[in-house]
Amino acid sequence: MNDIRSIERNINELRTLQTVARAYTEIAAVRMRKTRNSVLLNREFVMALDDVFADVRASYAQEVIKLALKRRGEGGITFLAHNGKTVAVLLSANTGLYGDIIEKTFRMFLKEVRANPEGIEVALVGRLGLALFQSAMPGHPYTFFEVPDTNITPTNLGQLIGHIVQYEEIRVYYPTFQSAIKQLPSKYTISAETPLSELQEKGGRKTKYLFEPGLKDILAFFEREIFASLMDQTVREAQLAKYAARIMTLDRSGENIKTSLKELNLDKLRVTHRLKNKKLLESISSVNLW
Fold first, then answer.
1. Which of 64, 172, 235, 243 could bond 32 through an S-S bridge, CB–CB 3.0 to 4.6 Å?
2. CB 230 within 8 Å of CB 46
3. CA 173, CA 175: separation in Å to the nearest integer?
4. Dihedral sign for Cα atoms in the order 105, 107, 113, 116
5. How does pLDDT run across 91-132, given as a tens digit for each residue?
6. Hey, what CATH topology would domain 29-249 get?
7. Residue from 158, 123, 117 nearest 144 by CA
8. Does the pTM of the predicted model rise above 0.90?
9. Pairing of β 76-77 and β 86-91
10. How far apart are CA 180 and CA 151, in angstroms?
């Protein structure tokens, strides 16, 4: 009887887990669809904003180059203050059930940080990434940012963007959505510099603009907005990949639960038959004794 009770208890626990897994899968699917629509809309916005910025730069290429030469002498153009350093940013997660995509992304991030530990500063987003980094490189300095896994707002990203915007080069490591069944770790580099050669190549554009209060102020505004938009888009791309990874993980868990339930039901059937056979034999034995 104890075997039967134990098996039935395990069956009930697995059925509860199965219900929870189904609920989480449905929630993740809804969030993935919602995030996917948001990512596509934001992608179009960022591309349009970048096109306008390219038109502005190309329309007044020579004026921009003169301003750049006054500021830096040669090489590139930027109108925001930067510290000349490089930062590596890891976008991870706060909770589990994302499969192995977070660890794969972390390994890509860790490889580059270890290759140049003195020349790259570290910024971490998500408690899972924090735990992995503290385990892999204990004592190494880092800056940690608490950003929720869901319902991300501009306020949530404000501190992160405010911190990394000061760097000359930002390398962001994050999971990307390839398809519903495939997610890959990726690296995206945001550089403060716009090569002057690029401006000269696009200098033939015909669009004319009037700048108020001035070209320098307009370009600084565009640079800030594009940087913030790129970071926001990257975070949402990572969010989309994590939702897809969670769906796959929960789907595999659901299949494993089904397999375990079948095995437990067979065990229950075997034990039930064994008990019935035992009772039958006992009954026959008692009849023979009489």
1. 243
2. yes
3. 7
4. negative
5. 999 988 888 999 999 999 999 999 998 899 999 999 999 999
6. Pyruvate Kinase; Chain: A, domain 1 (3.40.1380)
7. 123
8. no
9. unpaired
10. 21
